[in-house]
Predict the 3D structure of the following.
Amino acid sequence: MRILAVTGSSGGHIFPALGFLDTLTTRRKDIEVLLVLPRKGIISQIKGARYNINYISIASIKPRLDFKNFIALLNFLKGSCESIIILLKFRPCAVVGFGSLASIPMVIFAWLLGMKTLIHEQNVIPGRANRLLVKFVDKIALSFAETQAYLKDYKRKIAVTGNPIRAGLIRVDKNKALDFFNLNSGKFTILVTGGSQASHRINFGFLRAMSAIPDKSIFQVIHLAGNSDIDLLDNAYRDLNIDARLFNFLEPMHYAYSASDLVVSRGGATTIAEIMFFKMPAIIVPYPYAYKHQAANAGVLKNTGAGITIRDDELDADILGKNINELISNPQRIRAMRSCYGNGPGTGANDLLAEAVVSL
C-alpha cells in the first residue's frame, strides 16, 4: 500500500502530517509513504522527518496584480505539473491533504486519476484550500466536532478524528522534565511559545507582563523565542533576574509541556492539539491576522474552562500580567483548569486518522 501526504510549509500543517505518518508506518509495515512539501518550509529544523520527501514549487498567491503575484502564479502552475509527475511516478493508493495551497493541485489531480483522497482540517474554521477540496475528496477528517457546522452539505464524508501529534510527544515525569532544563521543582513553571515561527508580540508582551510581577523568585520560564529575539530576551531576563531557559526551536517539546504548570501561546491548531494532549492550563493569544481561526481554536479550551483567551492588542495592557499573577498565586485554579480535560487520554487522533485513510 502506498500513501502520499501533502502539506503546507508551516509547522501547523507539517507536524500533523508527521504524526500521521509516524503512526501509519508504526502500525503497518506493509505501507510505503511519501511526503510532499513546498520547497520553502521548516522541514530542515525537524529531525524526525525520516520519510521520502518530494518538493513542489508553490508560493502564496495574493488577490492583487503585481510582479510577485505573477511569479507566484507561475510557481503554482509549475507546482501543478510537478504534482502530476509525482502522482504518476509514485501511484499512491490514497492521497491525504493537510491543507494549504500545496494540497490543491495534488488532491484534485489525484481525484481526476481515480485515486482515493482524504483531507484533514486542523482548525475549527476550515481553511480556504480545504473548503475548495471538500467537493473532490472521499473523506473529510476533522480535528474538532465544531467544524461540522461549517460543512453541513458533506456530513456523509466527515469523520472527527482529532489533530495528530508527533509520535515523540509523550508525557514524562515532571521532576525528570524539570531536571532536563535544570529548573527548580519548587517554582511555578511557565512555557511561552508563539508556534513554529515564534512571535515577536508574545515574546515582548510576556516579558513586559512578567516584569510587573513584584516577586520574580516564585516562577521560572521556558521560552521558545525564535531566532530574531533570543539574544534580546536573554539579556532582558538576566536584567530582570528571571530564571529562564530560552530556545529558538525545541525538538523535544514533550519535556517542556511535562515540566510546565501553564502555557502562554498562540492559538494554532497544532499547538492547541498538543496542549489538549498534555492537559495544560493555558492562556491563548490568537494571532490577529488569523484571528477568526485561532480564536475559534482557543474557544474550545475557553468553553471547557481549561483556557483563558486574551486579544493580541491586550498584551500592552496589564491584562496578561494580572491573569498570570492570579494563576501563580492560585494553585486550586490551576488544578481546576487541568481537570477540565477529564481523565481520558488527551487524543487518539493519530490512530483514528490512520484508520480512516487505510479504510479507503
User: Anything to note?
Assistant: The CA atoms of residues 122 and 242 lie 35 Å apart. Residues 174-329 form a domain with the Rossmann fold fold (CATH 3.40.50.2000).
